[in-house]
Amino acid sequence: MALARRITALTGAGVSLESGVVRFRFDASAFLTSARVRREAWESWLDDPMWTAEPNAAHRALTGLQRIGRLRSLLTQNVDGLHQRAGSSSVIELHGSMSRVVCVSCGAVGAMSEALARVRGGELPPDCQVCGGVLRPAAVAFGEPLHDDVLRAARMAVLDCDAMLVAGTSLTVEPAAQLVPLAAKAGAAVVICSLDPTPYDSLAAAVVREPAASALPALAAVPVVATGPIRTWGDPSTW
Fold this sequence. Notes:
Elements: E1 7-11, H1 13-17, H2 28-33, H3 35-46, H4 57-67, E2 71-76, H5 82-85, E3 91-93, E4 96-103, E5 109-111, H6 112-120, E6 135-139, H7 148-159, E7 163-167, H8 179-185, E8 189-193, E9 206-209, H9 212-219, E10 231-234
Parallel strand pairs: 1-2, 1-7, 2-3, 7-8, 8-9, 9-10
Antiparallel strand pairs: 4-5, 4-6
Helix pairs in contact: 4-9, 7-8
C-alpha cells in the first residue's frame, strides 16, 4: 500500500460495525405495498444507531489517505454516511444513502432528517410534500438494481487504480463483488481485509484477517507486492 499512488477502496458493513451500526435491511416490496409495514419501518428508523454513530479508525484512515492524494476513489456499500462524517469527499455510495428520501411517484428528493422530524411530530408515515406519494429511503434494497451511473462511476474508479483495498465486505453481493476481479484483471494489486474468507481471496496480493478499525490504519503504511503468492496476516484461528 505504501507503493500505491492510485488507490481505490471498497468498504462494506464490517467497517461500520465497530461504530455500532448494523447491516441495513430493507424490504422494498413490503414497504411499498403495506401501510402497516411503512409505519413500523419509520418508527424503527427514528432510533436507528446510525444517526448518532461516530466514525471509527477505519473511516479516519481512509480519509487520511484521501487527503494526501493517494486514495483516488472511495466506494462503499454502506448507507450510513460515516465516511462523509469522517471527512471523506466524493464518496461513491453504491447502495445509496439513508440520509435522503425519495418519492416513488414523482421522484422528489428530500432530507431524511426532515422526514424523521415529521414522524416525531405525529405524521406516520410521512408522505411526499410535493405530490402526496410514498416516501422511501434513497437506499438500494436487497434485490434492487444499482443505478447505472453509480455502477459506471465505480467501474471507472476500479479500472483507474493501481491498488484496490477491500474492507469489511463478504464480497457476496452483486454487482459490487465483481469490482474485485475487474481490478485484478486490470493489473491492480488487491488487498482484502475481512475477518471471514471471501470468494475472491485467491485474487488478492494480500489478505488480512483483522477488524477494519485496526487493520486499515496499519495498511496505509504496509508495502504490498502486486504479483506472487497470496500472503495472509492475522490470527490463524480466524482463517
